[in-house]
Specification:
- With about 230 residues, this protein is α+β, with helices and mostly antiparallel strands.
- The chain is about 40% helix and about 20% strand.
- Strand 4, helix 3 and strand 5 form a beta-alpha-beta unit.
- It is globular, with a radius of gyration of 19 Å.
- The chain starts with a helix and ends with a helix.
- The mean pLDDT is about 95.
């Protein structure tokens, strides 16, 4: 689900919980709107980062400031994701302005799969491309990319990835609520899981998770003790 639908569903009680709330920065506007109808079960991963990235063969672009004056090379486009994603608002409202990129670059709304497909296509052809990305993400395992430095700190400090539940979920489901509060993954565990899912292929996610769990003895028991 896109972020807007996710928060609306949680606030309305149609969803019990979600594990992908980036707080306090990226999803701040959603928490402000729906926070009184949600339970925060804590951060299970962090810190994250938001960034623009280019393939490492684009040698002279290492920071956001380096993009200025090079719009023609990238066809004046920054390949975005879903327009409701928190990072898209930050990019359009703050990043372009602070680095003087307004008018030179257009942020192209799209989808995460569309952005990754465009990145892959450009990478295979050794063409310049700028994409919206974040860490952790398996794309950094699949391609050699440069995260563009943000010397002005416009993207903000790294978030924690939180689990948010509908109001009352913890009281209704004390055992699962306790599991979720204690849930933690390291970057190595998380990116290893994502890479396994990507390699195993669409429709075989459960098989990938089982393979990954087999390689992490004791992890399931630690995360969800009986």
């Amino acid at each position: 689900l896109e972020a807007g639908a996710l928060y609306t569903g949680l606030a309305g009680g149609q969803l019990d919980f979600q594990t992908d709330a980036w707080l306090p920065v990226t999803h701040a506007s959603y928490l402000e709107k729906y926070g009184d109808k949600l339970e925060d079960l804590g951060s299970w991963y962090g810190p994250t980062s938001l960034e623009l990235s280019v393939p490492s063969y684009v040698k002279d672009v290492k920071s956001l400031a380096d993009l200025k004056g090079k719009g023609d090379r990238f066809k004046g486009r920054i390949v975005g994701i879903e327009p409701s994603a928190g990072m898209m608002g930050i990019l359009k409202d703050k990043v372009l302005k602070e680095y003087g990129l307004e008018g030179e670059y257009e942020v192209v709304d799209g989808s995460t799969p569309g952005m990754l497909a465009e990145l892959k296509r450009a990478y295979e052809r050794k063409e310049p491309v700028v994409v919206t990305l974040w860490s952790p993400h398996w794309a950094y395992s699949a391609h050699d990319l440069t995260k563009l430095a943000d010397p002005k700190g416009v993207w903000g400090e790294g978030d924690g990835v939180h689990t948010l539940a509908r109001k009352g979920f913890g009281a209704d489901n004390p055992e699962v609520g306790a599991w979720l509060k204690d849930f933690k993954l390291t970057e190595k565990e998380l990116t290893g899981l994502e890479a396994e899912i990507q390699e195993t292929g669409k429709g075989k996610e459960q098989q990938a998770v089982r393979t990954w769990l087999d390689a992490q003895p004791g992890l399931a028991e630690r995360l969800a003790p009986q």
